[in-house]
Amino acid sequence: MTQTDLSDLDIANMLADAARAVILPYFRQPGLSADNKDAGGFDPVTEADRAAEQAMRAILAQHRPEDGILGEEFGTQAGTSGRTWVLDPIDGTRGFLSGTPTWGVLIALSGADGPTLGIIDQPYTGERFTGGPGLAVLDGPRGRELLSTRATAALDQAILFSTFPEVGTPEERAGFEAVADRVRLTRFGMDCYAYALLAAGQIDLVIEAALNPYDIQAPIAVIEAAGGIVTDWQGGPAHQGGRVLAAANPALHAAALEILSRA
């Protein structure tokens, strides 16, 4: 097939399929090693991360050579179309190393104003959350299901997720805790799977800080397609990363934003 034979959704699914095939043989295997990208802490990268991104880049080189690429492991490749594929081959490598199924493959197609198409793929559970124009679906063990966010309007009934208990700086932690003190339940350690669960109507809020564009662009597309809202802590665009508030609906977003905007 030539590049004109395949839709963007076809390409996105090809990327997710390729990443699945590369990553799964590494998961929960004894002796899986990781390099540390952060001399002051622990930011692991494995052979699976690198091989999966290379596999996805090879597909884009064949079918979308005019598009740019932003990937976690191999950086930016300029394009000429004004569109960029944003790739995180394993979001949640710490979870991957620990054997938890909270990691995922993140794929987004983005323009100047942010992502228009996104996939959160969990290869081990066989779940693929897809969001784009007129499309918000989960393909998984029970077949295809529609994604739709919850209608929870009050913070005291909400379920809040984040990845790291410290969230970010001490000031950002204080802002997070001001919201957490108001909600019904708070959970940590979910990586990108938290955003997938929000889109699927299982939880209500995800609040994080210090994110990169490749951490959040696919979740933005999926959550917004399912009826949710994703902004920064001031209510502005979040596709460049930083502080992120994802909410199931406008009322809940407004309630959490009113607290976070003072952080």
Structural summary, described in words:
This protein is of the alpha+beta class and 263 residues long. The protein has 2 domains: 3-146, Fructose-1,6-Bisphosphatase, subunit A, domain 1 (Fructose-1,6-Bisphosphatase, Chain A, domain 1, 2-Layer Sandwich); 155-260, D-Maltodextrin-Binding Protein, domain 2 (3-Layer(aba) Sandwich). The chain is 31% helix and 29% strand. It is built from 7 helices and 15 strands. It has helices at 8-23, 47-63, 93-98, 170-180, 193-199, 213-225, 250-260; strands at residues 35-36, 44-45, 68-71, 75-77, 84-91, 104-111, 114-122, 127-132, 135-140, 143-146, 159-162, 185-188, 205-211, 229-231, 242-247. An 8-stranded mixed beta sheet has the order 4-3-5-6-7-8-9-10, sandwiched between helices. Strands 12-11-13-15-14 form a 5-stranded mixed beta sheet, with helices on both faces. Strands 1-2 form a two-stranded antiparallel ribbon. Helix 5 (193-199) runs parallel beside helix 6 (213-225). The termini are far apart. The model has no long low-confidence stretch (mean pLDDT 95).
